[in-house]
């Protein structure tokens, strides 16, 4: 498998500035116990394959990255690279996520390290779609 990297300038990589944005509607998600609930009707960023959002704050214990894969399924990751702790971004058309820092550590959708200095897989979370809501088990 050829590893493709996101096009990022050196300042974005040095400072760990992610390409993936927070959802435009901050009210589209909530945490209930160990479940993250996302209303797909309120998240245009996830309406098409290749879309992604990052979730942080509120009473969410860990940062979360949510991706709509090219096959239309949803994937969810603990948004923390196992090398430097930086955020992750999806790499379009590759079924991989990549650290936003200089190391470019790249993980498969099942969390396994494919490239870079990270020694451990990134955590993934199970995702279900129920009544047009994503239910992510944290």
Record field, number of beta strands:
12
> Any idea how many domains?
1
Shape: globular
CATH architecture: 3-layer Sandwich
Rg (C-alpha, Å): 14 Å
State the helicity in percent bands. Answer: under 10%
Mean pLDDT: 94
Q: What is the H-and-E element order?
A: HEEEEEEEEEEEE
At the first level of CATH, the class is Mainly Beta
The N- to C-terminal Cα distance equals 30 Å
Q: What would CATH call the homologous superfamily?
A: Rieske [2Fe-2S] iron-sulphur domain
What is the topology, as strand order, of the major beta sheet? 1-2-12-11
> How many H/I helices?
1
Poorly predicted regions are none
Please identify the structural class as seen in this structure.
Answer: mainly beta
Which percent range describes the beta-strand content?
Answer: 25-35%
